[in-house]
Design a protein that fits this description.
Layout lengths: L1 H14 L3 H19 L12 H42 L8 H8 L3
Helix pairs in contact: 1-3, 2-3
């Protein structure tokens, strides 16, 4: 139950984010990750130098994937969060709702 409440709060926070802010975040993340992704790759001829080159290679590869994934999540996050929030609000039981046993008594099935 606590995880669902945390997810609901997170979805609500994203749903309240204005569209222009998500567009700015998408553009900023793309332009921040693009130079990292386009760095020239170092060719390792001697495996003794691999330990010094490997972190840069991994960072470049990760940035290459994230330069598209992060802006996509920024742009699609708000509509999806609004849809989730709308679905969760429809699924909530009103405080004065009838319980199953009260319904059985009302219909005479108890």
């Amino acid at each position: 139950m606590a995880i669902r409440n945390d997810q609901s709060r997170a979805a609500g926070a994203v749903a309240r984010t204005p569209g222009w802010a998500c567009l700015v975040l998408a553009l900023a993340s793309y332009f921040a990750l693009h130079p990292l992704a386009m760095r020239p790759q170092t060719i390792v001829m001697d495996f003794s130098h691999l330990a010094t080159v490997l972190p840069g290679l991994l960072a470049s590869s990760l940035a290459e994937s994230l330069q598209y994934a992060v802006p996509l999540l920024c742009l699609l996050g708000v509509p999806l969060a609004k849809r989730i929030a709308a679905l969760e609000s429809c699924a909530e039981v009103p405080p004065n709702a009838m319980s199953a046993s009260e319904f059985a008594l009302l219909t005479g099935e108890a």
